[in-house]
Amino acid sequence: MDSIPLLKRTPLRQHLVRTVIVGALCATATARATNDGSDRPTISGTPATRAIAGSPYAFQPSAHDADGKTLSFSVKNKPAWANFSIATGSLYGVPTSAQGGTYDNIEISVSNGELAAALPAFTITVDSGTTDGLSTGNATLNWFVPTENTNGTSLTDLAGVFIYYGPSASDLTHVIQVSSPSETSYTISNLAAGTWYFAASAYTIEGTESTLSSVVSKSIP
After folding, report:
1. What is the CATH number of the domain that holds 8?
2. Same domain (yes/no): 17, 37
3. Could you tell me if 64 and 108 lie in one domain?
4. Residue-wise pLDDT tens digits, 149-166
5. Is the whole model's pTM more than 0.70, yes or no?
6. Domain of 205?
7. Which of 76, 96, 127 is the last residue of a domain?
8. Final residue before a domain boundary, out of 102, 127, 152
9. Per residue in 9-23, pLDDT tens?
10. Highest mean pLDDT: which of 24-38, 97-111, 121-135, 175-189?
């Protein structure tokens, strides 16, 4: 399998380590408006309709308001195992084997405060502890070990690398910590079908973290 390059030999930038968050996987249907009017927002996206127990699931729709109004999202019939962001519309979570089954009539909508639009209702089926019949794949990432700080001094206290990944370049909400200063490769397994995006940062023993590398992507068929 082809490997994906991440960090180049760029220096560390001094700033605080970010808080690790858990999140998710995305995809893209045609919106239907819940109110008439030329100023209504638009929303699109095709959520995955199957999930694997014990593996992350996530979907984030795309939304736009022609007048640039602030948008907020809502969801109906959210599965108990899922979280939802009213700021981004992201539906994500990790179902357990005990939560296997079918979750019907899930509906995500967006509003600009005056008018709203919604995706067609969809269903998520959680398969309990098996990947039979589901497409999954791996992504192997590699990077160069940073050698200096932004002030030009030698980097002598490198502790490891954070790998951030997610369903879009702006939604890298999964994180993996590689706690080895000499490691230059990592394989992420059990990725659901779709396009995944990846970036990485280096961090020191003191907790200083670099800026993110360029974002790269891989499609899982």
Report:
1. 2.60.40.10
2. no
3. yes
4. 888 888 899 998 989 888
5. no
6. 3-22+135-220
7. 127
8. 127
9. 444 433 333 323 333
10. 97-111
Residue ranges of E strands in 65-220: 72-76, 82-84, 91-93, 101-111, 116-118, 122-127, 136-142, 158-166, 174-178, 185-192, 194-204, 216-220
In 3D, which of 34, 39, 16, 28 has the Cα closest to residue 210?
A: 16
Number of domains in the chain: 2
Distance CA 123, CA 106 (A): 6
- One domain, residues 68 and 40: yes
In a domain, 27, yes or no: no
One-letter amino acid at 189 equals S
Backbone angles phi, psi at 75, to 5 degrees: -140, 145
Read off the tokens for 180. Answer: 């080895």
- Tokens 């249907």 locate to 29
Contacts of 63 (CB under 8 A, 6+ apart): 41, 42, 43, 44, 71, 73, 89, 110, 117
The predicted-structure confidence for 45-85, as pLDDT tens digits, reads as follows 888 888 888 877 878 888 899 988 999 999 999 999 999 98
Is 140 found in the same domain as 112?
A: no
**What's the mean per-residue pLDDT of the chain?**
79
Q: Kindly report the three-state secondary structure assignment for every residue of 176-194.
A: EEECCCCCCEEEEEEEECE
pLDDT score at 37: 53
